[in-house]
Write a structure and sequence with these properties.
Structural Genomics Hypothetical 15.5 Kd Protein In mrcA-pckA Intergenic Region, Chain A; alpha/beta; globular; five-stranded mixed beta sheet; six-stranded mixed beta sheet; Rossmann fold; single chain; about 425 residues; 18 helices; Tyrosyl-Transfer RNA Synthetase
Length: about 425
């Protein structure tokens, strides 16, 4: 028997997206009524344009919004062209650096590209719409804002929010600018209510304080119940947040990370994370997910391959997923050098340390030296033992040589 009346919430529950809701019974009734009448519910996901691409850590609420749309509802993606000028203090130890107009414009364009990989944008009833809160904040009068919005908030309650309380407990400075952030996000929610009939905000659990800021404002100022719905923070077996790989973010946009590296990130997920990732990062039917997550021992590798392919197909498209899969097969199963591996040009005589740094496998020569001492770097499948080694003509076959970091990261040196 379903736990909820609405299709969306049942999907969220069975796939592991459900963490917390301001009023789950009320949200369920709102959604089920919309599903019955065919009138889309409206919900939004916000992201400040502090970078020009989202990464795997952002995908969880984005996949929630994807399912929201697939259930017939209308998603809004809000980019914080205004709030990025302040910075969300949630989980931060210090004030976020200020961004100039050109950087913000560039980053917003990149975020639209990221969102478009998961959502269908357009003019249809449940097509996604992207909005920028700079459009309404740029003309706000400060005194009017304090009078109309500031009077709806209690400083006593704001001080209990995790984003504020944690900073104060650590005796880390928090500017009045940052303290305003939850008022601005709460105002965003109410503007979207007025403009689009939006009654739901979907986000990660770290946004709970900011979300309830908006639901409380909606109740006080507009006598309307708004809903906040959050996902858990997804971590691996070691407790590390998903989306980080050897210190680098696993970016959604292809100009930041190759499709092959994106594929390999999911291919190398730990055995205990496979089921969780299949449920969250793919569109596979739940029965197929259950079959795959039940596989044991060596068979679990087949589930990882399917996970990597399906996750890459959503983010990069079918052709890129097939190419990444073919490269992986050629590299790992056939012992060759797949065509989609990262490539660097180097001359005979180039130092091996420079090669690994320039291709991006090592952050510095010091890191490369450390990995050589640990036996972690390879040239043409042979462990590099000499940190002072320089490339020789015999290292190249038909002008190409293969390098590797450990057993999972490969690249090509092209002679020039």
């Amino acid at each position: 028997m379903p736990e909820f009346k609405s299709e969306f919430l049942n999907i969220m529950l069975e796939r592991g997206f459900y963490n917390q809701c301001t009023n789950i019974e009320g949200f369920d009734s709102y959604l089920s009524e919309c599903e019955k009448t065919g009138k889309p519910a409206v919900g939004y996901l916000g992201s400040d344009p502090t970078g020009d691409s989202l990464h795997v850590g952002h995908i969880v609420p984005l996949m929630m919004l994807r399912w929201f749309q697939r259930c017939g509802h209308k998603p809004l993606t809000l980019v914080g062209g205004a709030t990025a000028r302040i910075g969300d203090p949630s989980g931060k130890d210090k004030l976020r650096p200020f961004l100039d107009e050109a950087t913000l414009t560039h980053n917003i364009k990149g975020l639209k590209k990221s969102f478009s990989k998961f959502l269908k944008f357009g003019d249809g009833a449940n097509d996604a719409v992207m909005v920028d809160n700079w459009d309404w904040f740029k003309d706000v009068n400060y005194l009017e804002f304090l009078r109309d919005i500031g009077t709806c908030y209690s400083v006593n309650r704001m001080l209990t929010m995790d984003s504020v309380k944690t900073r104060l407990e650590r005796e880390q400075p928090m500017s009045f600018l940052e303290f305003n952030y939850m008022l601005l996000q709460g105002y965003d929610f109410c503007v979207l209510l007025q403009k689009y009939g939006c009654r739901a905000q979907i986000a990660g659990s770290d946004q709970w304080g900011n979300i309830t800021s908006g639901t409380e404002l909606g109740r006080r100022k507009y006598d309307t119940e708004l809903f906040g719905f959050t996902s858990p923070i997804i971590t691996d077996a070691s407790g590390k947040k998903m989306g980080k790989s050897e210190g680098n973010a696993v970016w959604i946009n292809e100009d930041k990370l190759s499709s092959y590296d994106y594929y390999q990130y999911f291919r190398n997920i730990g055995d205990t994370e496979v089921g969780k990732c299949l449920r969250i990062y793919t569109d596979l039917p739940i029965d197929e997910v259950k079959r795959l997550e039940a596989l044991k021992d060596q068979e679990i590798n087949e589930a990882k391959k399917i996970l990597a392919f399906e996750a890459t197909k959503i983010c990069r498209g079918l052709a890129e997923a097939e190419a990444a899969q073919a490269t992986a097969v050629k590299t790992f199963e056939q012992g060759g050098a797949g065509g989609n591996l990262p490539v660097i040009e180097a001359v005979t005589g180039a130092g091996i340390l420079d090669v690994f740094v320039n291709i991006g496998f090592c952050a510095s020569k010091g890191e490369a030296r450390r990995l050589i001492k640990q036996g972690g770097l390879k040239l043409n499948d042979a462990v590099v033992a000499d940190e002072n080694y320089h490339l020789q003509s015999g290292d190249f076959t038909e002008g190409r040589a293969k390098i590797a970091l450990g057993k999972k990261k490969f690249g090509i040196i092209k002679a020039c």
